[in-house]
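To the wet lab folks,

You asked to see what we're planning to order before we commit. Fair enough. Below is the target structure as tokens, and below that is the sequence we designed to fit it. If anything looks off to you, flag it before the synthesis order goes out.
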């Protein structure tokens, strides 16, 4: 894959807009590791190599286990995720593939067993944010491999 263009240089305001959305997600209070799982799972569905590379590195830097990262695309069959994480991952898949079946009522009710109304909105914002990043990365040909996570204190 070859980079087509650097959208951050061509339209710097586009990056600033995405960063505002990312800032909302960071301030939401959702657990950092959960947000990384959402980012990785969404990126797997969308086939965004750049974002998979970035967010698996970030998750490792946060202390996420290799086992949970390797099995994320088969989370339904793996016993390593909490019920709340499973609900969030199911929502991630439904929102990312919204044209398939929308978000069915039973899924909404499942998610609401673990997350209040505000957290539900925050989950959707996190899912929407990474979907947007994926679409920018794929459409502009961002190449994976060079990203390194910030040193965590």
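Sequence we intend to order:
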């Amino acid at each position: 894959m070859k980079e087509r263009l650097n959208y951050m240089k061509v339209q710097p305001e586009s990056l600033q807009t995405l960063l505002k959305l990312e800032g909302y997600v960071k301030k939401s209070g959702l657990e950092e590791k959960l947000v990384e799982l959402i980012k990785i799972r969404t990126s797997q569905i969308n086939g965004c190599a750049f974002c998979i590379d970035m967010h698996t590195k970030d998750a490792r830097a946060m202390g996420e286990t290799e086992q949970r990262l390797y099995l994320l695309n088969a989370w339904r069959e793996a016993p390593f995720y909490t019920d709340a994480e499973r609900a969030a991952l199911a929502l991630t898949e439904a929102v990312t593939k919204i044209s398939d079946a929308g978000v069915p009522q039973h899924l909404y009710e499942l998610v609401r067993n673990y997350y209040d109304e505000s957290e539900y909105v925050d989950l959707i914002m996190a899912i929407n944010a990474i979907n947007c990043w994926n679409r920018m990365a794929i459409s502009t040909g961002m190449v994976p491999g060079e990203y390194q996570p910030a040193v965590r204190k």
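Structural context that might help your review: The chain has a mean pLDDT of 94. The chain has nine helices and no strands.

Thanks,
Computational group
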